[in-house]
Specification:
Oligomer: single chain
Helix content: 25-40%
Number of strands: 10
Strand content: 15-25%
Low-confidence stretches: none
Number of helices: 6
CATH superfamily of the largest domain: ATPase, nucleotide binding domain
Order of helices and strands: EEEHEHEHEEEHHEEH
Structural class: alpha/beta
Largest sheet: 5 strands, mixed
Number of domains: 2
Shape: globular
CATH architecture of the largest domain: 2-Layer Sandwich
Length: 261
């Protein structure tokens, strides 16, 4: 079975694939100080709750945008799974063209998403990932990564608003009741500004990208926050929460010759 680890700046996803389907997924807060031993204890307990064993995991693939954590995630695989992990950006062959001025600057998460989208959706794509940052990436019909847009994530914007304005409270992000835009108090005004502001950001950037590209583009969205926007805009064609782990699975299949995985 394959252990796929997708680490963002905020959360880290651990997912298990049994060769046919994803059978378990867990999220933990990203903490670069967490050791391989701490990961192992946490993972062992979760596996046991699902009737699974650590010894059953015979493959591992890691995508991380937190370099300080890679040492411990790599040691988790080596020490407890007894396999050399595939690491995006290091020993994993992506099998996809990266058509930007500095290919080395393309984030691992963005490339994984591009592959995860390409294996399911035909044609040219815009892939939106809403996490710590909100990214809009262009994937060509042949799967090539052709750049994109990076904007602050919705949670980051909310945190900045609270930190910079002494009288503005820390609030939860949620869709305004009855889809109202104008708030009647501070909290509802903030919620409306963040929610509808991000809808406007998404719709505006999609429209501009489509004009600039001049070709039909299918829009696919993923990420922990993106489910909030489902039903609130017609600019997104598909909401796909499994985009990233699908990309990791495809990359693992393309690299089975490495380390005997």
């Amino acid at each position: 079975m394959l252990l796929a680890i997708e680490q963002g700046n905020t959360n880290t996803l651990f997912a298990i694939h049994d060769g046919n389907e994803w059978i378990a997924q867990w999220r933990a807060a990203t903490d670069s100080r967490r050791t391989a031993d701490e990961y192992a204890v946490w993972l062992l307990q979760l596996l046991e709750m699902r009737g699974l064993k650590l010894a059953s995991l015979d493959g591992c693939i890691i995508s991380s945008v937190v370099p300080q954590s890679l040492f411990n995630l790599r040691n988790l695989s080596r020490r407890y799974l007894h396999v050399e992990p595939l690491v995006i950006g290091e020993n994993a062959e992506l099998g996809v063209a990266v058509r930007i001025e500095k290919p080395s600057e393309a984030g691992a998460d963005r490339l994984v998403n591009a592959i995860g989208a390409h294996v399911i959706y035909p044609g040219d794509l815009i892939v939106i990932d809403s996490g710590t940052a909100t990214t809009f990436d262009i994937v060509a019909a042949d799967g090539g990564f052709e750049g994109g847009v990076i904007a602050p994530g919705i949670n980051l914007s909310m945190q900045a608003l609270h930190d910079a304005a002494a009288k503005l409270p820390r609030i939860a992000i949620q869709r305004p009741e009855r889809n109202r835009v104008v708030g009647t108090d501070t909290v509802t005004a903030m919620q409306s500004g963040v929610f509808w502001g991000y809808i406007a950001l998404i719709e505006g950037l999609i429209a501009r990208i489509k004009v600039e590209r001049g070709t039909p583009l299918t829009v696919v969205a993923t990420g922990g926050v993106v489910s909030l926007f489902e039903g609130a805009t017609d600019s997104i064609d598909f909401f796909d929460p499994d985009l990233t782990i699908r990309g990791l699975l495809e990359i693992h299949r393309r690299n089975r010759h490495i380390a005997g995985q």
